[in-house]
Amino acid sequence: MKKFNLRNLTVQVVLAIILGILVGAIFPSFGAQLKILADIFIKLIKMLIAPIIFLTVVTGIGSMGDMKKVGSIGLKALIYFEVMSTISLAIGFIVVHLIKPGEGIDKSALDNSADISQYTTAAENQDHGIQAFIMNILPENFFGAIANGELLPVLVCAVFFGLAAASIGDPVKPVITLCEQASQIFFKIVGMVMKFSPLAAFGAMAYTIGNFGMESLWNLGKLMLGVYITMALFVIIILGLVLRYAKVNIFKFLAYIKDELLIVLGTSSSESALPLIMKKLERFGCSKQVVGLVVPTGYSFNLDGTAIYLSMAAMFIAQVYDVQLSIWQQIYLLLILMVTSKGAAGVTGSGFITLAATLAAFPMIPVAGIALLIGVDRFMSEARAITNIIGNSVATIVVAKWEGEYDPKQHDVLVAELKEEKRLRHEHV
How many domains does the chain contain in total? Predict the structure, then answer.
């Protein structure tokens, strides 16, 4: 009798993660060289993201016709993003004050710490402020934005293209049909690339353990545990309550997107599952228009996991250096985080650069303190990437409900299909 199916992607990714940990622990030097497997996979996925986002948004808006509908979806999504980002930042602040993970840490470890110049330099090179942020969103070149894979500029191009197509109407319907057909081709390529995901997960875990060692899993364990628990509670309680409004059970939804969560866990990048999660949300009952607008926008404006991490990491460093912040200084730090957390992409390491940018704008906390987090950031990166993708998925469902763009009949069909799949799996066991 078959206990499990080795052809199942979930099984393959889980086994790959376990094998990667073993290889990294037993053959650390070899494991450290396997990062290239994860890099290749993420590069292949990133190759597809810009055209998929462009084509999905264009077909969604172009076939919608109602410009007021597009504006309504965008406005409601942005309001939801800002509310949830503020809640996640506040929760991070509260938890780090309760558990105080930075107290009693030996700061001498900073003397021989890893080089942080790559992060501080990257942070200094980032433009700050609302004007700079808006200018970075606007593309300098229509095709250049797609070629460079810049998510927000691509989204802006797609929105303008879709709005123009919708306003012209019937004469350009063949163009919208062509975009829809092209998107099907790209999603087919995604399916081909996803077959490589177990190798990517294996390489990423082998590199992490081989490069940092098994002891790094326990280094700064209190902070890591605090981050994990905080994000888990945020997903189960906060996002669970939000989904309850949409009459969706959080645990059943997590089971539905388990394959995508495992891919994110293995690669530590929420972008690695972006194309797949968009298809899953459409199958779940959300309209193509809502999915096409909310998911890509959420990857820059609704990073709940990154927000929790940034608030906890910043206050952790303050505790390490015994920096006492007044309530007003903490509110000021919260406001800075509300700005710097926007635009942090879902790629590994971006949260770390954003933390450096935050501390650079808040001189009361020494930016050198981020050196303490280098060894364990990789493990917290996985937690924030998973929280980010769950948060964006929940946002899509809620906005679809608000807009009447959620099809309960399609969801009922999906439930029936999942029950049938579960019954067939039990028969094979």
Answer: 1
159-210 tens-digit pLDDT: 888 888 888 888 888 998 898 889 888 878 877 887 888 888 888 778 877 7
Q: Confirm whether 19 is domain-assigned.
A: yes
Higher pLDDT, 340 or 381: 381
Buried b (16+ CB within 10 A) or exposed e, 308-340: bbbbbbbbbbbbbbeeebeeeebeebbebbeeb
Both tokens of residue 145? 């934005």
Residue listed under structure tokens 């303490």: 372
Q: Is 304 exposed, middle or buried (0-12, 13-18, 19+ CB in 10 A)?
A: buried
CA-based angle 243:155:131, to the nearest 5?
100
Domain contains 1: no
**Could you tell me which residues come within 8 angstroms of residue 206 by beta carbon, excluding any fewer than 6 positions away?**
19, 20, 21, 23, 24, 30, 31, 32, 34
Contacts of 71 by beta carbon, 8 Å cutoff, 6+ apart: none
> Using the 8-state DSSP alphabet, how is residue 405 labeled?
-
CA–CA dist 165, 157 (Å, integer): 12
Tokens 């200084």 identify what position?
329
Task: Give the separation between CA 394 and CA 208, rounded to whole angstroms.
Answer: 30
Q: Please report, for the domain that includes residue 194, its CATH number.
A: 1.10.3860.10
Distance of CA 310 to the CA centre of its chain: 14
Q: For residue 289, is it within any domain?
A: yes
* Residue 320 counted as domain residue: yes
Provide the whole-model pTM: 0.70
List Cα–Cα distances, 244 to 112, 210, 236, 239, 398, in angstroms. Answer: 49, 42, 11, 8, 10
For 244, the domain range is 10-428
CB-based contact 283:270 (threshold 8 Å): no
- 352 three-class SS: helix
